[in-house]
Amino acid sequence: MKKYIISLVSLLVLITGCADYLDKQPDDMKTDEMVWSSRIETEKYLANCYAGIPTGHLHQHEPWVGAADECNITWNFYQADNFNRGDWTPSSELVCDRYERFYQAIRSTLTFENNVDRCGELSSDLKTRYKAEVRFLRGYYYYLLLRQYGPIVLIKELLPSSADFANMQRAPYDECVKYICDMMDLASDDLPMHYWDNQTRLGRPNKLVCKAVKAIVLNLAASPQFNGNAEYTNFKNHDGTLLISTTYSEQKWKDAAAAAKAVIDMAEKYPETRLKLYRNDENGDGEFNPYKSCVDVQLKAWNCEVIWARTEAQYDDTFQRSWMVHNTPGPHCLGGVSPTLRLVDAFLMKNGKPIHAAGSNYVEKGFATKGGDNWNPNRYDTSTEDGRKGIIADIRNSTAWGHWEGDWNMFCNREPRFYAAILYNHRVIPSLSDDKNIRNEWSTGRQKDGFGRAELYLGGAARPSSNYANYSKTGMLVFKRNDPQADMYNRVYPQNYACTYIRYAEILLDYIEALNHYDPTNPDIRKYWDEIRSRAGVPSAFEATPEIAGNEGLQNEYIIRERQIELCFEGDRYFTTRRLWKAHTPDEIIKDEVTQEERDGRIYGDGGSMWGMSVDAGDVGTNDFRFEGFYQRAIFEKRIFNKAYYLFPIPQKEMDKCPGLVQNPWWSGNVTN
């Protein structure tokens, strides 16, 4: 019987469940001979191998932001809400459940690798490179499975439809890690270092991408969840094979550090890679501005910090535009992607100290009596129309930033990354034109002054009534990855956007974290940590908090805090708290020593109390920016987190098809842990 291959217009449906073949012949299918004899069709099939890569739709189709302790998604029909309510089981139909999809994509890479040599229209060099690409993709899909589901079934070769898929068993975690790393090494051997000389291929894997994925996988494998975790003692296959080693290995941290350092060494040894932390002045464009650097690194496609991304030709950037609509406050936008106070509290002060550290100069209560250092660098007279337009232009150009007079002190004198990430009450909304009438639509009553500040309290323009659906439940919104040059009133966007999967800052953070676990006095820890802080415009951690130096435990906590800040809203925090085995940290509420007010007492924990502002306080008719009741800390949600949630369950439909599989820990029966 002939086998048929789906063309690019169809999604990957070569298998269902473990490996069911389609033997029918719809009109949009082509025979083997038609596909593998044609360069066009072969390259279409290769493009189809990329189709399983997630698109980075972080507020809708991927729960990683809204189900982590850094954020809340207002709408309960987005799937983060299922996780936060504990409303999911192995039988749940989840958009982010990609078990079958990733195995379909893996099958496609094996099919391609086995058949590409049949295409006489491709040169031998292209065949070699294309085979390297699908090896990378196979390893990457296995990494995504490993990260989400834990130990996986490894299918390393194209198997016939008669193979006993139903009784295949999961491979031990360390074996999965080794196979992924082997795929990255094999792919790297036959891929170029970069594609700057042929930018039509940007988005394809290269040596740097392969080495970066290897570093990320090894960092995951070295982390407490998978490195000596005694709670997985009974996690075994039916034949008794232990799936996650319960013996701690320091060598895993050494391997992770070495892999991350290999990426750093390539960046430093080969300038043609153009890989470094992005700064706004990297091309001699004016003075260094840490705020603008932190804003633009998220928006400028293929800037020097990007290791791997996909651009508009490969990626539907309406997802990025949708992100902005969901993050901009009403009335004309949705404004419901909301940072938690746990994240807001994590950001440093401008002197580099955490807010509760001695000498931080943090003030929780009251209103600022003057603006910050950079609020009006061109000294405009904001009481005039020209001055109003001038400072709005500076805000939209990211040359004016920081707190204004009248901002709540909690938000004042914070580090640049705070202002690049958080839109808080009373802050001027950047992504509106300077048209006074338009900006006044974002204002109520006597606050119509042409500046268009975020009114996030009950009765404000972003929440005019208590039954209004589109509002922030924490009293703050995400600003990160929002283009200040966009016009959100008319939905006009000044550029095309990329979905960035890996950037250099993540590799630097991986390196110093791994190094700290076995060599906490190594000078590289300060060297690369200082680079991250320098770009962020804050003093070295070793100057701001010298007591941490050489102390593995303290340094680790501060490195993870740095990661929490630097990579916020990028999908990292969800997996970081899990790999650290910290997501189940018990709820704790403490009282301020002076005011006796309650606040969040934890820095980790995805269950229990989540905190924001008092968004329901006061009166619709009288609330305004000066209403202090809004700024009181309040619990906005009680979340459920059971230990089962550390790993996604294997979908029940797959368990039913494949009795050789064992389910992930704590997913059988009623979960009470």
From TrEMBL:
State the GO CC annotations.
cell outer membrane
Gene3D superfamilies assigned to the protein according to its UniProt record, in alphabetical order? 1.25.40.390
Location in the cell reads: Cell outer membrane
Give the signal peptide as a residue range, or say none if absent.
1-21
Its name, as the record gives it, is: RagB/SusD family nutrient uptake outer membrane protein
Q: Which residues form the SusD-like N-terminal domain?
A: 20-207
Q: Which organism is the protein's source?
A: Bacteroides xylanisolvens
Instruction: Provide the primary localization.
Output: membrane
Q: Which UniProt keywords apply?
A: Cell outer membrane, Membrane, Signal
Q: Give residue ranges for domain RagB/SusD.
A: 305-667
Its family remark reads: Belongs to the SusD family.
Identify the InterPro entries for this entry.
SusD-like_N (IPR033985), SusD_RagB_dom (IPR012944), TPR-like_helical_dom_sf (IPR011990)
